[in-house]
Amino acid sequence: MPQTVCSSTMFSAPTGFSPHLACAEPEEEEEAPQEGPGRGACLSDGPPITSASLDTLIQNLVPTADYYPEKAYVFTFLLSARLFIPPPELLSRVCELCIKQQQLDQSPLDMVMRKFGPKILQLLTEWTETFPTDFRDDKMVGQLKDIVHRIAPCDEAYWKSLNQLLQKLSQRLVSLTASSISDKLVAFKTKPPPITKDILSICNDPYTLAQQLTHIELEHLRRIGPEEFVQAFEQKDPLDATQPCYSDQKKKTTNLEAYVRWFNRLCYLVATEICMPGKKKQRATVIEFFIDVARECFNIGNFNSLMAIISGMNMTPVSRLKKTWGKAKTAKFFILEHQMDPTGNFYNYRTALRGAAHRSRTANSNREKIVIPFFSLLIKDIYFLNEGCANRLPNGHVNFEKFVELARQVGEFMTWKQVECPFEEDRAILHYLHTAPIFSEDGLYLASYESESPENQVEKDRWKALRANVLAKT
């Protein structure tokens, strides 16, 4: 059945689920965390950090003339730190440490900046490129400009590089705001009037439709920032007394929620297209068409559209059309259903996803690089990782091992979303997919009962109630 936008249902536990990460058990005695210049060894030359104080983790983020944190650490910490400290405060702490350690408030700075300048520039570049929405906050922009003004005068090249950084950040923020996706759900509470167009009149080639669905999926993926995966969940950790460090949570997960709504729309669109035709043979033709579209989505690596199509075809108003299904060739559908079977925590799908990910890593073309995961399952995995492991250990340290696993999952998604869609856009098909009217659940049942009569008393009673509701409104 289609996923819902409601978080309480979207994140219900799948059967047999076990978190990927075995949560670290707190030790009875903890050694004092290392501070100061020696910290780099624990990030590159020594064992990975499993837990540390927030101050230590912030210290590890700050570059020096002789040290720069690994890129994986920068991503992991910037992703997870927002659970403990707001991004503006984190940037402020980073700036203060830079000023203090490198004596940026003193002169002359030429010798210091020759080594330190490129490293702080690299950190700011990684931050602005990976988490650009952090810099929608005026405080963030002010602090960024402050450190720019401190280091830029030392070298004309820094002026140029930092101006380019600010320009790219501005352009990125404008593009994120301007290029909104139309995900309007056109629904009917009763059966709507006849629709003059159907999907087959717009596109009768399964491969072409799968390509256009992939366009929409990748566009949604591109708009989702990594921070939304962290900001999607309330802080419920009883060991952590701090409140979530982000405000207006709904606004912060807008793109993620829009993607879930797109999945729901595609489910209902598939069901509407099947239930709409008056003749059994036409409905069977539509079923066979969507089976072929689903197969092409699987071959492309578009698992989200594949699952939406299967979910739409498994909705009760569609699945009850036994005479229609009897007319359709469904062998390929059952194979696809097997691939997306939820048994064993979606074992078959996860195997196929690993295969697609391997193909993507070794691919020479964007066509082979496409990996679009079943998004609601990805969200569930991250949700249960969040629920299954505490953010802080009893000694107050941040459970960094948990956030390394979180960053691994989100980082893989970040790689997939950067792929450019290699298929040519068909504006007519895209417009139809975004705007075609769809039946509500009641509308689907009414259309289904009118296509194939109710078979039991429950269906008869429901049909009678739906018809009475329509007559009362007309």
From TrEMBL:
Residues 45-174 form the N-terminal Ras-GEF domain. InterPro entries: Ras-like_GEF (IPR008937), Ras-like_Gua-exchang_fac_N (IPR000651), Ras_G-nucl-exch_fac_CS (IPR019804), Ras_GEF_dom_sf (IPR023578), RASGEF_cat_dom (IPR001895), RASGEF_cat_dom_sf (IPR036964). Keywords: Guanine-nucleotide releasing factor. Pfam families: RasGEF, RasGEF_N. One of its GO terms (biological process) is Ras protein signal transduction. It comes from the Eukaryota. GO terms for molecular function: guanyl-nucleotide exchange factor activity. The keyword DNA repair does not apply. GO terms for cellular component: plasma membrane. Coiled coil: none annotated. It comes from Neogobius melanostomus. The keyword Mitochondrion does not apply. Residues 205-454 form the Ras-GEF domain. Residues 26-45 are annotated as: Disordered. This is RasGEF domain family member 1C.
